[in-house]
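Per reviewer request, we include the raw input and output of the structure prediction for the construct analysed in the revised manuscript.
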Amino acid sequence: MRHQTQQPQQQERQRHSGGGGGRPAPAFVGLILLAYNVVSALVMDKITPVTLGFIAVQTTIFLGCLMPGFDPNQVANICLNANAVAVNGEWARVMAAPLVHASDVHLFYNMLSLLMKGPGLEKRFGSIAFFWVT
């Protein structure tokens, strides 16, 4: 009887999780998509140096966070929290929050946005000004 009750629960979990037959999502999908978009921009000569540098730094920071010994639960201690800044004086969160991404898909969407907007802004304002503003 126990086996029969588990089966509908498993089906429900698969339905809500995107369930392609119970297969897990491929690892690092966001990083693969990011790499594809960056290479495409490089080939089409549509990426500027500061934009490329920021994407490289952000990706390196993200991959460093995945190294052995890093506790993924620490991301919550770094992300921006207005209460922690105002009440506890944790001002380091203001600078650290833009550098930390919760997942590879989060990194992908942020860097894709930078890849789409960055080159135009960098060309308009110049690389040095874009670097300091970003």
